[in-house]
Amino acid sequence: MPASNKIPALRTIAMPADTNPQGDIFGGWLLSQMDLAGSVIAEQTAKRRVVTVGIEAMSFHQPVFVGDEVSCYTKIVRVGNTSVTVKIDTWVRRIKSAEHIMVTEGEFTYVGVDSNRRPVPIY
Predict the structure, then answer these.
(1) Which residues partner with 37 through β-bridges?
(2) E-strand stretches of the chain
(3) How far apart are CA 8 and CA 36, in angstroms?
(4) What are the tens digits of pLDDT across the range 89-112?
């Protein structure tokens, strides 16, 4: 299970429509779930709209299967003048065994933007 200092930010079920040609969950779908989870905590921290500007140290450790319960946990790593970097760990609960497994981790950087989508200082 994830460390207690991480905040649960997203939980969903992997569905058949999210598979790649080999039948596993498509990595791009999983990446998008992580991005959504990270944006939740980044916007709360920045107190404004944020956009994703980078993904660092992304690792896929295990596959995700149809029916797995997917949970993303977040932790603020760094807050800059205009940016917030979030560490995101993704775990699954396997549908057949109820086993909890960490499947991905990465650091996502978000930048606070104004209504013209220009970077602005965050609060």
Answers:
(1) none
(2) 7-13, 50-60, 69-79, 83-93, 100-112
(3) 12
(4) 999 999 888 899 999 999 999 999
d(CA 67, CA 18): 11
Q: What angle do CA 95, 2, 93 make, to 5 degrees?
A: 0
- Tokens representing 62 are 């295990």
Residue 8 pLDDT greater than 90, yes or no: no
What's the rounded mean pLDDT across residues 43-58? 95
The letter for the amino acid at 5 is: N
Cβ-contact 103, 90 below 8 angstroms: yes
| Position 118 in a domain | no
Structure tokens at 76: 């603020």
Domain-located, residue 23: yes
Adjacent-strand bridge partners of 100: 93
Q: Measured between alpha carbons, how far is 2 from 108 in angstroms, rounded to an integer?
A: 18
Task: State the total domains in the chain.
Answer: 1
Answer yes or no: is pLDDT of 3 > 90.
no
